[in-house]
Amino acid sequence: MELIHLQDVQKTYHLGDLDVPVLKGVSLSVRRGELVALMGASGSGKSTLMNILGCLDRPTSGRYWLDGVEVSRLSPEDRAAVRGRQIGFVFQNFNLLPRTSALDNVLMPLSYARPRVADAAGRDRARRLLDLVGLGDRLDHHPSQLSGGQQQRVAIARSLVNDPSVLLADEPTGNLDSKTSAEILQMFRRLNADEGLTVILVTHDAGVAATARRVIHIRDGLIAAGAVGETVGAAR
Amino acid sequence: MRVIPGSVKLAFRALRRNVLRSALTTLGIVIGVGAVIAMVEIGQGSKRAVAESIQSLGANNLLVMPGQAASGGVSFGGGTSPTLTPDDADAIEREVSSAVAVAPVVRARTQVVAGNKNWVPLYIYGTSTEFMTVRDWPVAEGRAFSAQEVSGSAGVCLIGNTVARELFGNEPAVGQLIRVNTAPMRVVGVLAKKGANTFGADQDDIVLAPWRTIKFKVSGQSAQTGNQSAAAAQPGQPAPASSSARFPSQQPSPYPLQSASQMVNYPAPPPPTFVDQILVKVDSEADVPTAMRQITALLYERHRIRAGQPDDFNIRDTAELSQAAVATSQLMSGLLLAVALISLVVGGVGIMNIMLVSVTERTREIGLRMAVGARPGDILRQFLIEAVLLCLVGGAMGVLAGWLGSWAVRAFLHWRTEPSLPAVLAAVGVSAFVGVAFGFYPAWKASRLDPIDALRFE
Question: Which residue of A has its CA nearest to B453?
């Protein structure tokens, strides 16, 4: 079953009188449990596509189904709800709350969850996730007391706390050295393999993209390769 | 139900992340609320002080003064024409229904001697026992003089605290003998301490005696007292009027003396005795205008004043004075409140500035929160709650600061202050309102942010 399905998605920015088309008709689909890399040079429309996939933005035209629901026409309020329920974000610069413990950072998304999660249950869940990313002994550490790799692992734990159906990682290793990068990528692979989590890695780095089983290439607002994962499906 | 505590906890955590900034932000509100509390407490205190001072002057009191005397078009001013008699006082008490107590007053100013000490009291009042009721003035030691002693012009007196201190120091004053001018008087009681009146005059610097005693033995204005020692020897028997007694001389009397039988057969009508003022205590402030009308009508009748003739008396009510004083102090506390409110508004603008800075500073955080599922409404609420929380914490600290301030004013300046619950409630309410009003714009701005731009914000 397809978790994500984009059909002829276009995005055009209006700068004054000038129309700048960024996505010129993107169609792609991602199955549940896939580990996909979205790869493209800067200016290729990669970030715009990621924003649309993450329900942060809506396409100018075209349709987007996430988990069987068409989200391309939702209001900002409803998109926020979808983000909270279905999508986990991991950012290049971690985006942790400063002067806040790792545990509280992981707990943060739960304060916007509907229905509400009980405090104790949330804490248990956050502890378990921090254990999962190997930070079970650093619950009370603040971001400033953690290394870059550890911060990114806190961010991964945070992205998982809502039990999302898809994890969107935007250049997750861009700020990390090669050894830590390898660890983080290994963690994505493990999450994908062990937990069956759908992961989309957005990157410009072919080395990072090589982690994924399928690479979607985007060039000049169009999918250049890997739009549909038949090969993977066939391999299975 | 869980929404509010959760958001409040969240806001607390956010504020705690930058304690210094939060503290500086609230400072404006602390000062504003503190100013409101201190101002209102001081204002209330001084209002009450004025009111009580007026009361000790005699709230609900009417003062009936004799009219003015004039000669050849030259007026001698109010109270110069002797027109009020003790009978007027009795008549007022009898016929004016709302008059609770009426006291005629005769004034004198002379030296008081006790042992080797002497003193000139500010007030020497001859009056009746009702004076203490009219002026709300209890006797601290000993007793008040009785009605019999008043009618018998007995040589007894009450002295005020200051006089007791000046004449007797720490010795007990009750039972001592003092001499007022030439008249000996036994001190039967000491009045309770009353302190200075609104105009700074020491009210305790007083000697109170039966009015006949002061009138006939001390000031000697009336010709009724023949020889002072004789009058003292047989009190209650006014000696026959004679100018020779008033102005004793070695010359033989130019008028033939009356024989005993002549005196019995043709009793001389008692010449009128005049008092300097009549104090009337009215039941309640509401009755003052009625009482004034009734007294005016009564005195017109008694003094045979026809319509068109000038009054030979005038009535003053202290309610007018007290109203003016209360109005003044209300105006003052209103003014202080306005100043305090302005400082609250300034504090609110400060909060808005800091909240705007905070929104800019935390743009990425806002973007992140939106990315993980916060709706614009959630962001709006969070920043609003932060602002209100800042204001409420500032308000609470401000209440403490205000109390501290009014305590300091009370302790060091000896001003009177009075705790005011409405002021506390109003201050807390206003600070919450300031939080919402000035926190709304930054919070609204935060909630309008585009999550994509916010996440990319450097």
Answer: A56
